[in-house]
Fold this protein.
Amino acid sequence: MKEEQKPLPKWILIVSLLFGCLEIMVSFLICFSPQSVLETVDLSANGVYYLFYMWASRQFALGFIFVFATYKKSSPMLTIAYIFFLVMFIGDFLIGISQKNNALILSAVVMCIISSAMIFAINKRN
């Protein structure tokens, strides 16, 4: 027998939809204006656009998953999306440490806290 799921609070849906839309916007920004995302990258280097498009597709996929999970109001799908978000920002944190980039470290820590809080909030109601 399947246990009845409680509906997600509106604020969780709004925050998740916002993250989804932001991820999709970032993917388009990476595709169409990569110089605005990373000023320190030599855009004339061989293969750099391939990496940008790979990065943009990752961002688009994550944004689509967030939007779709929000539309379906699915707790398991949103949990998985936020776990992916958390893992992604742990990676950004480690990259920030290796590059000695304090802004990246700080933003990654903040987003790790937000992702963890959202995972907790989604699963707390069960």
